[in-house]
Recover the amino acids of this structure.
């Protein structure tokens, strides 16, 4: 539902109980810290997300053998947070650690492997290596479109493909993928979910690039409205939405 502040309150209550009732190296406590990570990352508090990740990882190192599947999720979260922080070499390193474990412990066409490929592709996009970005995204789709998996995984890959083609200035292909991703997210998420704001903003930037300023304004307004309702005022995404809104307003 995108109610991250409320979720955080309940996670804190649960964690207080875990800290009292469980040994300090219990894997359940590590899982509790990982719940915090998801909230903090979505709220844009990357410092807090890293701290929670480090707490979880320290417990896992004492509890599990190297290569245990439990580490894959933790490494993936490290990758996401470092990607948010624009530390792309660290992000790529952690995503690669994640996929190394997943390939050894999961079936060949497991949906998580599609997520891994999509995440690695996104980092390559961010560093400007579009050829490798597209290659990893296609690997992700080959899994996600051919196995039973959460359709929101496909939506994320479609959105990432849209971003890649948009940065390559292939706006027609970019729009096709954005529309595929948007269709799934609008069907599966509540109307005010922050993940919808992300794709609305991306579509706004695409329309701005093609000088279709009325459509750009339509989508950025939706992104700003959701962001103002669901995100902290200083969240990097909301700041960016407002900047795009101001830039688009000047073209009206």
């Amino acid at each position: 539902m995108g109610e991250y502040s409320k979720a955080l309150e309940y996670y804190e209550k649960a964690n207080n109980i875990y800290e009292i009732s469980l040994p300090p190296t219990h894997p359940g406590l590590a899982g509790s810290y990982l719940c915090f990570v998801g909230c903090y990352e979505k709220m844009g508090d990357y410092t807090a997300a890293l701290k929670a990740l480090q707490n979880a990882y320290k417990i896992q190192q004492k509890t599990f053998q190297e290569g245990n599947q439990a580490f894959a999720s933790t490494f993936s979260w490290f990758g996401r947070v470092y990607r948010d922080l624009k530390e792309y070499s660290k992000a790529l390193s952690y995503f690669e650690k994640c996929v190394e474990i997943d390939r050894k412990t999961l079936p060949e066409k497991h949906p998580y492997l599609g997520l891994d490929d999509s995440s690695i592709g996104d980092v390559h996009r961010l560093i400007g290596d579009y050829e490798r970005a597209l290659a990893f995204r296609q690997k992700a789709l080959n899994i996600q479109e051919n196995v039973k998996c959460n359709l929101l995984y496909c939506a994320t890959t479609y959105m990432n493909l849209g971003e890649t083609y948009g940065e390559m200035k292939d706006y027609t292909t970019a729009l096709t993928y954005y529309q595929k991703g948007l269709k799934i997210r609008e069907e599966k998420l509540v109307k005010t979910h922050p993940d919808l704001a992300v794709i609305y903003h991306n579509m706004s930037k695409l329309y701005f690039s093609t000088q279709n300023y009325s459509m750009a304004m339509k989508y950025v307004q939706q992104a700003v409205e959701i962001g103002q309702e669901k995100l902290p005022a200083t969240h990097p995404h909301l700041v960016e939405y407002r900047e795009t809104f101001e830039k688009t307003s000047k073209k009206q």
Remarks:
- Residues 189-252 form one domain.
